[in-house]
Amino acid sequence: MSTLLAADTRQPGQADFLPLYGTDYVEFYVGNAKQAAHYYKSAFGFQSLAYAGPETGVKDRVSYVVRQNKLTFVFTTALRTGHPVADHVYLHGDGVKVLALRVDDAAAAWHETTKRGGKSYMEPARLTDKYGEVGLSGIYTYGETVHLFVERDQYAGAFLPGFREWKTGYNPPSTGLRYVDHAVGNVGWNQMNPWVKFYEEVMGFRNILSFDDSDISTEYSALMSKVMSNGNGYVKFPINEPAEGKKKSQVEEYLEFYNGEGVQHVALATDDIVRTVTQLRDRGVEFLQVPPSYYKDLISRVGAIEEDISPLAELGILVDRDDEGYLLQIFSKPVEDRPTLFFEIIQRKGAKSFGKGNFKALFEAIEREQSARGNL
Predict the structure, then answer these.
(1) What are the pLDDT digits (tens) for 11-35?
(2) What is the pTM assigned to this prediction?
(3) Topology at the third CATH level for domain 23-165
(4) Residue range 161-184, pLDDT digits in tens
(5) CB under 8 Å, gap of 24 or more: what pairs does 104-107 form?
(6) Helix 250-258 and helix 359-373: axis angle, to 10°?
(7) Strand 71-78 vs strand 23-29: parallel, antiparallel, or unpaired?
């Protein structure tokens, strides 16, 4: 059964060796960065921010950067075959490569994590241009996913040195998405606990919530999950692994089509989920749907909420409560051709949990999609 663990295991006065200040950006390796950027602008309400490519001196790849409030997405494509980005896309399809984290000192972050066993992706470097200086470094996490440490308090440019401002006449209005609430990784059989240990020992995170297959299961499939959080709670990474079931679980399907471990979904926060999801739906984003029966006894299950039930039911928005308050959440269908990456839209009204009460309804909705694909 699920267990809510202690808020912090450090002793009073014990320093956080890796202070993090949230997600700086998420970078996707994709087959066509220009079209991906256009999709996220049109469907999700991002605006043009920055560009790097041959015109800026980068000869082997292009990157388009879009932003919405505190959310920054980067889409990168290789210009030729035989490039690491092209190889990544060939193996995994479009997906998340980099979860970049804001730090005060990128060099210190690299030294602290690598000396604790982190595998280096990028040694500390200083990038400069006329707008100032940025510090970067990075380590690998599960699969080929990377955590970049970004130090940018001395930089006033659009994004990073090597990028130029990207101005376009087409910038759709925001849909109200604000920041990354959490990002979920799928790992292989019996790999959850080793990666929990990695986040604890290498990055100083703590396990704040655990779910086993009695919490996250249906008649056909199951998985296990542990939520890792940094010291101040700004960065949360739930980690999923498969559990034994009668049929193939969503994590097994992901691992098969992604050809390995990686980011399953990114949860995006909003202050008005009804407005945000209505706009996303109207712009073409497809969401998982739960049966109307889910809403019949909603208030008796979760208690009084401020929202009207009818728009929640129309949109398929789920509700759950913990000791701190309640949350509203909904999950998109996969946004790629492969059944891999998807997005969660979440609005927290005090709740600090992750929607345990919705697991069964959500997973049955996912299984209906898996069955339609012939992958259950």
Answers:
(1) 444 579 999 999 999 999 999 999 9
(2) 0.92
(3) 2,3-Dihydroxybiphenyl 1,2-Dioxygenase; domain 1 (3.10.180)
(4) 999 999 999 999 999 999 999 999
(5) 104/19, 104/21, 104/151, 104/153, 105/135, 105/151, 106/135, 106/136, 106/137, 106/149, 106/150, 106/151, 107/135, 107/137
(6) 50
(7) parallel
